[in-house]
Each structure stands twice: as C-alpha cells, then as structure tokens.
Model the fold of this input.
Amino acid sequence: MQRSFSRVKNSRGFTLVELAVVIVIIGVLAAFGVPRFLKSVEKSKGAEAFAYLAAVRSAQERFQSQQGTYASSVSDLDTQSAPPKYFSVGAIGAGTTSSLENSWKLTLTRIGASAGYSSYTVVFTDQGFDSTSTIDSSISPITQ
Done:
C-alpha cells in the first residue's frame, strides 16, 4: 500500500495554477506584441504606396522633360511599377499651378481598413510627398 502512495507522490506534471500563470504570461505578451505587429504590417503597406508614387514621380519628370508638360494619365508614363495592391489609384490632376504644364498631383486611397486604421490617402505632387495626405504619422514610412 505504501508503495502505490509513493508512486503518486513522485508523479510529475503541471498544476492548474502553473498552467494558469503561463496562460496569463502569454496573454500579456500577446497584448503588447500583436498591436506592434499589426502596425508594422500597415506600415509596409504604406511603403508600397510611397514606392509606387516615387516611381510615378520619376516617370513624370522624364515625361515632362520630353513633352514639355506632365502626363494626365498613369498609362502615358513609362513606369514599370505595378499598381499597388492595397490602394486605389486616382487620376492625375493639375497641382498647385492648376496646369499640368507646371505641376501635378496624384492621390492613392487605402482600400478598406486594416489594423484599426481607417482608410487614408497618400498624395504626391511634382514636389514629392504632400502634407494633405491623411496617412497616420505612426505608419508613414517617411516619419520615424
């Protein structure tokens, strides 16, 4: 009889309290880690928009030097960049001078919302990134 009692006493395993503590620790780590992960994913999607707009800006400068005016359509440009996957591309319009001869403006709008960020826009002009963009500075690839 004493032999079977000692066997139970020596058995190894986790108690319910130990398992509960581990679950709480994992929950706390996830509470801090998941929002950072989602923010970095959204920031990479924003970087896609900036890369596309930078390619459009370069193509616009080449077009302007050859034609004397900026292009009115992205399809007129010699850019090899595919349209961004997570943004809708607006139409190229005249910028601050109200004439495509001197300025242009292009807006990308985030399709849907992700990671708690509402839909936002990224605007580029002939001068580069435009402050009328509504992208959150915490996910903008150009801010630190």
Observations:
- The radius of gyration is 27 Å.
- The CA atoms of residues 93 and 109 lie 15 Å apart.
- The chain has a mean pLDDT of 87.
